[in-house]
């Protein structure tokens, strides 16, 4: 009970929410690290996954190399980046991008590659251009698997972005690191709860987006078949 009361007190104090080191500031920092890393990872993994699925040459080798990032410890990547670049925000972003590319790349490749070749041939016979076939056929069919990789990367990033605090930067991980340094258990638990809550909310938002997009494409497919 004392522990629960301590965590409740930590959340209820206005000073813990406001200011340079407050919860809101650390939450914004955390979302910034996650968002920037995810945008960069998507900019690399999505087009590369589509390219590998269409040309296939060296696809397994490329995906295997990128998947090495999953086996590397996140803190080790940060330390290596610090040694090469120094104490810059980019060191954290590099580590996060390295770890978030594999699920997006793999799912994009598999999703596009698994589109039935007979459907592609039928689309070509109807006179669809390459871009039309991608947006009207391949992307709608592959979207659930691609978005699954995106969701996996997002949740992983939210949890892993706490390593920014190890490198001396901000984010919700500061509550864990600072709490350990001060032996402040309520702060540690409070920080962990904030990370968990952010991951749960992000997962819920992603599920809503996925359901909306699937309904939209199914409706479009029904209208197309009716015509």
From TrEMBL:
Pfam families: BPD_transp_1
Domain ABC transmembrane type-1 per the UniProt entry, residue ranges: 27-206
Keyword tags: Membrane, Transmembrane, Transmembrane helix, Transport
Keyword Transmembrane: yes
Presence of the UniProt keyword Transmembrane helix in the record: yes
Subcellular location: Cell membrane
Listed transmembrane segments: 31-53, 65-87, 93-112, 133-150, 156-177, 189-214
PROSITE patterns: ABC_TM1
Listed GO biological process terms: glycine betaine transport; transmembrane transport
Record InterPro entries: ABC_transp_perm/SBD, MetI-like, MetI-like_sf
Cellular component, GO annotation: plasma membrane
Topology of this chain in the membrane: Multi-pass membrane protein
PANTHER family to which the protein is assigned, alphabetical: GLYCINE BETAINE/L-PROLINE TRANSPORT SYSTEM PERMEASE PROTEIN PROW, POSSIBLE OSMOPROTECTANT (GLYCINE BETAINE_CARNITINE_CHOLINE_L-PROLINE) TRANSPORT INTEGRAL MEMBRANE PROTEIN ABC TRANSPORTER PROZ
Family to which this protein belongs: Belongs to the binding-protein-dependent transport system permease family.
Name the UniProt record assigns to this protein: ABC transporter permease
Species whose genome carries this gene: Pseudomonas morbosilactucae
């Amino acid at each position: 009970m004392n522990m629960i009361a301590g965590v409740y007190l930590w959340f209820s104090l206005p000073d813990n929410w406001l200011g340079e080191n407050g919860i809101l500031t650390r939450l914004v920092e955390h979302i910034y690290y996650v968002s920037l890393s995810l945008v960069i990872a998507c900019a690399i993994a999505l087009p590369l996954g589509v390219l590998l699925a269409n040309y296939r040459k060296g696809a397994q080798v490329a995906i295997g190399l990128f998947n090495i990032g999953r086996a590397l410890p996140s803190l080790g990547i940060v330390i290596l980046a610090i040694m090469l670049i120094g104490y810059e925000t980019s060191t954290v972003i590099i580590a996060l991008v390295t770890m978030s590319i594999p699920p997006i790349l793999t799912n994009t490749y598999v999703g596009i590659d698994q589109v039935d070749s007979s459907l592609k041939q039928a689309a070509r016979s109807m006179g669809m251009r390459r871009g039309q076939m991608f947006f009207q056929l391949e992307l709608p069919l592959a979207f659930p698997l691609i978005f699954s990789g995106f969701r996996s990367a997002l949740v992983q990033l939210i949890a892993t972005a706490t390593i920014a605090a190890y490198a001396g930067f901000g984010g919700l991980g500061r509550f864990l690191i600072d709490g350990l340094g001060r032996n402040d258990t309520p702060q540690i638990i409070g920080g962990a709860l904030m990370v968990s809550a952010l991951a749960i909310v992000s997962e819920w938002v992603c599920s809503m987006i996925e359901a909306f997009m699937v309904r939209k494409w199914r409706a479009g497919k029904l209208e197309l078949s009716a015509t």
